[in-house]
Structures are given as C-alpha cells and as structure tokens.
Amino acid sequence: MLPLLLLTDSRFPAGGYAHSGGLEAAVADGLEAGEVPAFLRGRLRGVGRPEACLAVAARRAGRVEELLRLDAEALARCPSAPLRLASSRLGSQLLRTASTVWPRVRDEHSVLDEYRAASKATPRPVAFGAVASAAGLDDRETAYAYLYEDAATVATAAVRLLPVDGATAARWLVEAAPELDRLALEAAHAGLPGGFAPALELGSLAHAMREGRLFAS
C-alpha cells in the first residue's frame, strides 16, 4: 500500500508539479474554470488510458529488451516533439527518484538499472511501469496510480491558472473517481491501444513557443 501512496502523492519528487497536462495551453485558448472537469475526463480517456496501458505492459516486462520495445511504442503514440521531450524528462526524473526511494531495487530488480542505462527516450509511461514493478504494485494499482497522477496534475495546475480554490480542485478528483476506477480496470486487462488527442498535440506545439508560460507542458 505504501508504494501506491507514494507514487500518487503530489510531494513525490517526480517532476509533475512543473506540468499542466495541456491545461495551460487550453486556458490560453479560452478554456474556463467550469470546463476543467470535462477537459480532465477527456484527457483521461484520450491520453491517460492508452498511457496507463503502456505502464501496465512495462510493469509486466521481465527484460530490458521488452522495455525498450515499449519505448518505441510510446514514441509512436506521441507525434508532438514537445510532448515527447516532456515525457522523457518526467520518465528520467521518476527513474532517478525511484533509485533513491527504493535503493534495494539496485540488487533485486536489475532490469530497472539496465533500462535506465539503455533507454535514450525514457518515456514516462514506460518508466512508470518499470518503477511500479520495482515497487511491487500489481497491474490495477499501476494503472490507477498512473491515471490518478494524470488527473491530479490537471487539477493542481487549475489552481494556479484559473480562479479555482484547492477544495474545488479536490472535488473534481472525487467526482472523477468512478471514471478512474473504470479506466484503471480496463487498462489492467487491455493490450496497447492507440490514443487520439489532436487538440492536446496541437496545443503543445503552440505552448512550447509561448513566452511567460508557467508550466513546461
């Protein structure tokens, strides 16, 4: 239970605080506070679920070659260069943090160290699954943790970007709980579906060129 709580804790130093899940770009394009829950649900379905499936597949991987194959799968599902870079940075930070939080993985889970050394991309979903395996999470816990963190990233960013207080943002997460449960169960039993979120992909390109932005993505 503790590893699950750690991976979903906003204080876990994995770099998510610097990202908005595309919300900042959407706000710049006119999205208002009352539309954030719909944005959050759409992101969970179009981006969160496919990436959670990748994380589950990475959790199951027993060899570094399988993780590197999943790297290619993750990159193929993310045509936006800025989003690829953001995912790579988040994955790399997550791997570094995991090696400190769970130091025994260096002896008991050599695949994680091999992956850190071999992967040039470290996409976040694959890194998350590798860390989840080292931390002892099962498939559903891995998917749920991934989806929750994705939703929490959006909700937390909304507090800084819009006239929204923290209690309202927390309520959005509570209201998203049934969707999180459903998608986590699906991801735990699915293969590797393709995601489709063209508005987020296009928004990330404009966001990367915007001056004065608060978040990296």
Tell me the total number of β-strands.
Answer: 0
CATH superfamily: Urease accessory protein UreF
The helicity comes to over 70%
* Architecture per CATH nomenclature, i.e. the level-2 architecture: Orthogonal Bundle
* Tally of separate helices: 12
Total separate domains: 1
- β-strand percent reads under 5%
Unreliable spans: none
At the first level of CATH, what is the class? Answer: Mainly Alpha
Radius of gyration: 16 Å
Query: What distance separates the N and C termini?
Result: 30 Å
Which H/E pattern describes the elements?
Answer: HHHHHHHHHHHH
Give a nutshell description of this structure.
This protein is mainly alpha-helical and 217 residues long. 71% of the residues lie in helices and 0% in strands.
Describe the structure.
Helix 5 (81-101) runs parallel beside helix 8. The protein contains twelve helices and no strands. The chain has one domain (23-202): Urease accessory protein UreF (Orthogonal Bundle), CATH 1.10.4190. The relative contact order is 0.22. The chain is mainly alpha-helical. The mean pLDDT is 88.
